[in-house]
Design a protein that fits this description.
Keywords: DNA-binding, Transcription, Transcription regulation. Residues 2-71 form the HTH merR-type domain. This is MerR family transcriptional regulator. InterPro entries: DNA-bd_dom_put_sf, MerR-type_HTH_dom, MerR_fam. It is a single chain. The chain has helices at 5-12, 16-24, 43-57, 62-70, 74-115, 150-154, 168-171, 187-192, 228-236, and strands at residues 31-32, 39-40, 119-124, 127-137, 140-141, 161-166, 179-186, 202-204, 207-215, 245-255, 258-268. The protein folds into three domains: 5-71, Multidrug-efflux Transporter Regulator, Chain: A, Domain 2 (Orthogonal Bundle), CATH 1.10.1660; 74-115; 116-268, Multidrug-efflux Transporter 1 Regulator Bmrr, Chain A. It has 271 residues and is an alpha+beta fold. Helix 3 packs across helix 4. The protein has nine helices and eleven strands.
Length: 271
């Protein structure tokens, strides 16, 4: 039985333009009527279009589908399907990582009002990080350094996080008011994402950390004196710091006509 393109479109739910494009990509080869541009489609053409629809649902390209339908041996057919399975597995792994990241982030945001100004201990994994801009006074920053890794790491947000870096020795000295901002990622995620590394990337080992959430307020308010309560808490409880402070930016929100910058800080301590 012969079908017009409109009939095929209605039968398969494919736009006429799509069917014509599939013909152009040599998925099907309908017959042309003599002395006319009209094409007629046979049942066999419909079978090919249905198979094409199946392989497109696997996100296989039309070029590869044409080869699979008209040229490939079974071995090549299996190879193409196997490659597509690998692509899907990689996407699935990525979205599983993303789901865990978003879930953990949502929990941090939900508990944020209860954690500001509080202190607790947490075991943190190994991190890799580098800094790209430094501050010497207030919110006056130096030039953002051109780091070779910067654009590559930014592509892997949210697994790569924006971070605030402070020396514990600096916050303990009231004469000093300097810090840095950088990018940080869990070492395990860096490996899974094949994140590029170089000699500028530093490592913070897995460690027991003292943790707190702080509100740094609006732009221009930042000063290391905001960390005086943390220094007091550490000294009053006989805690021995064993590394510098890394803060992960949680969110910026507005309330009571003000901007609030919430950052979760961790500092490695002696067990």
């Amino acid at each position: 039985m012969a079908y017009r393109i409109g009939e095929v479109s209605k039968l398969l739910g494919l736009p006429v333009e799509t069917i014509r494009y599939y013909e152009k990509e040599q998925i099907i080869a309908p017959k042309r009527q003599e002395n006319s541009d009209y094409r007629t489609y046979e049942t066999w053409d419909i079978f090919f279009l249905m198979e094409c629809m199946r392989y497109r649902s696997f996100d296989i390209s039309l070029k590869d589908i044409s080869k699979m339908l008209h040229n490939d041996s079974l071995d090549f057919f299996v190879e193409r399907i196997g490659f597509k399975q690998q692509v899907i597995d990689e996407k699935l792994r990525y979205y599983q990582m993303l789901e865990r990241k978003i879930s953990a982030y949502k929990d941090k945001l939900a508990s944020l009002p209860y954690n500001v100004g509080c202190y607790w201990f947490v075991n943190t994994p190994e991190y890799r990080y580098f800094t790209y801009v430094r501050r010497e006074d207030g919110d006056h920053y130096g030039e953002v350094e051109e780091k070779p890794l910067f654009p590559h790491w930014l592509k892997q947000i949210p697994f790569v996080e924006f971070t605030h870096h402070i020396s514990f020795a600096d916050i303990a000295d009231p004469r000093i008011d300097r810090d840095a901002w950088g990018l940080c990622v869990e070492s395990a995620d860096a490996a899974l994402l094949n994140l590029p590394l170089n000699a500028e990337v530093q490592i913070r080992p897995a460690s027991l950390c003292l943790c707190t959430v702080m509100d740094l307020g609006d732009y221009g308010n930042l000063t290391l004196r905001q960390f005086d309560p943390l220094v007091t808490y550490i000294r009053d409880h006989g805690i021995v710091p064993e590394g510098d402070i890394i803060g992960k930016i949680l969110t910026r929100v507005h309330a009571d006509g003000k901007m609030h910058r919430y950052i979760e800080y961790t500092i490695p301590v002696r067990k």
